[in-house]
Amino acid sequence: MVSIVGSGVEDGNLFPRRQLTGTTDDDIPGGIDAATLRAAITQVGVPPPESQIGKRIVIAVRDDPAQFDQLYRHGSCSVCWVEVDVHRDEEQEILAGKIDLALPLRPPAHCPGSTGQVLRILMLNESSLMSTDDPVGTAVVGFGFAGRCFHSYLVGLAPGLKLQGVVSSRAEARQQITDRLQTRAYEHFDELLADTRVELVVLATPNDLHAPQAIAALKAGKHVVTDKPMCLDLAQADAMIDAANQAGRVLSVFQNRRWDSDYLTVKRLLQEQTLGKLVYAQLAWGQFGAPGSWRGEAERGGGKFVDLGAHMIDQALQLASSPLQRVYARFSDAGLPNDVEDHAHCILSFADGSDVHIVTSSLARLQMPRWYVLGTEGALEKHGVDPQERFMIAGNIDAATEDESLWPRVSRAVAGQTTQMVVQPVAGRWRSYYENVGAAIRGRAELAVTAQSVRQVMAVLDASRTSVRTGQSVEMAQTDD
């Protein structure tokens, strides 16, 4: 855990504006969660990275030196930690970004004119992560809700990507693509594969098309992102991973809800031990009414459990601190006009004794809490879904805010007394997904959402169907995923 302090210069002195908490994450290059950093930078009043492309953003950090050394990363990482013994007349220049901290530094020892203390500086060099010099040519397949409102929009915001075109079989959609997006409209998937400008193919198509289209694109030498779920089953997932390995191309899945505000907040509170050790959690997401179009067809990968459950299963697996041991699931049919489940309840049991319940429903006239978490030291309840989708559809995802009435409530014992508090959530940032994909393709970052990490989501979906069919729990094979 690192205390991040946004610093300003007032009357010649260094003053902290606001202290926030960031959490380390070894899966992200640089050793700290990028979404937390961006939230911290925004909240302390430093311009967000999007307005500082190619510039270095500098904020001061205070922490125990031993812990600080453990976090240090150097090289091509987008986040770089450095220690420097700051001379009095350098303070303002450092904070203003006028001193190049990438140059060889004095060791952190006192020297004439020193302030007498070591300043630790966080450098977030977004130019290395989101370079616009060589954007990845990207095409989206499908211009339905997901292709139009999610993928085309977010690809268009990513500095490291360039939207080269969108595929749609509908003539009216192709006209919208040309008029509104000012990009090429392909009628057929094969046209896209033949376009040498396209390096990355984004599949916003029905779930049953993900595997065959992904494999075809990979064989054509393209990098691939599929919408979630990755595909229909584990066998298809393995075939896709094999194709990516053989082609030497990036394969990722749009698990954008790893950058949800509520998920990041729960993750932070567990890492900080505010809730203690996880014992039980319920992740619920309900809507009312039967899913329409292909989403109501089981053979095409429809149903709320696949659609919404793929996100919540992924979140549960990311939060888990021990291997998944078994899966039990039940589906209920309430007579809605479709051939998919109307209500689903899945239990993930982990080796450390913790259980996570996943609930999806088409019967939710009243909403359940989105998160209900019990730990050894506290409990959390959170209503409402991440607000980014609503603001994205309105045309400005960066304006996403959530009413304070929906902020997480936490109850825990303090000095022997049970207390309740409202927790300001960590800011979510879906932009990060495609920014990372572009950087990974160009070799500037590790891929945040690997196909291998999503493979276990497909294993859980397969196990859930088996459990529903047999009425028994399914033991999960232990892997290195």
How would you sum up this structure, described in words?
The chain has 481 residues and is an alpha/beta fold. It folds into three domains: 2-129, no CATH class; 136-254, 3-Layer(aba) Sandwich (Rossmann fold); 257-428, Dihydrodipicolinate Reductase, domain 2, CATH 3.30.360. The protein is 30% helix and 28% strand. It has 15 helices and 20 strands. The chain has helices spanning 34-43, 65-71, 91-95, 126-129, 145-157, 171-181, 189-194, 210-219, 234-247, 261-271, 304-307, 309-319, 388-393, 431-441, 451-470, and strands at residues 2-10, 13-22, 56-62, 79-87, 114-125, 136-141, 161-167, 184-186, 200-203, 223-227, 251-254, 278-286, 324-332, 343-350, 355-361, 371-375, 378-382, 409-414, 417-422, 474-475. The protein has a nine-stranded mixed β-sheet with strand order 19-18-17-16-12-15-14-13-20. It has a six-stranded parallel β-sheet with strand order 8-7-6-9-10-11, with helices on both faces. A five-stranded antiparallel β-sheet has the order 2-1-3-5-4. A hairpin with a 4-residue loop joins strand 14 (343-350) and strand 15. Helix 8 runs parallel beside helix 9 (234-247), helix 9 (234-247) runs antiparallel to helix 15 and helix 12 (309-319) packs across helix 15. The two termini are 25 Å apart. The relative contact order is 0.12.
Can you give keywords for this protein?
481 residues, Rossmann fold, Dihydrodipicolinate Reductase, domain 2, 3 domains, 9-stranded mixed beta sheet, 6-stranded parallel beta sheet, globular, disordered N terminus
Write the SSE topology:
Layout: E1 2-10, E2 13-22, H1 34-43, E3 56-62, H2 65-71, E4 79-87, H3 91-95, E5 114-125, H4 126-129, E6 136-141, H5 145-157, E7 161-167, H6 171-181, E8 184-186, H7 189-194, E9 200-203, H8 210-219, E10 223-227, H9 234-247, E11 251-254, H10 261-271, E12 278-286, H11 304-307, H12 309-319, E13 324-332, E14 343-350, E15 355-361, E16 371-375, E17 378-382, H13 388-393, E18 409-414, E19 417-422, H14 431-441, H15 451-470, E20 474-475
Parallel strand pairs: 6-7, 6-9, 7-8, 9-10, 10-11, 12-15
Antiparallel strand pairs: 1-2, 1-3, 3-5, 4-5, 12-16, 13-14, 13-20, 14-15, 16-17, 17-18, 18-19
Helix pairs in contact: 8-9, 9-15, 12-15
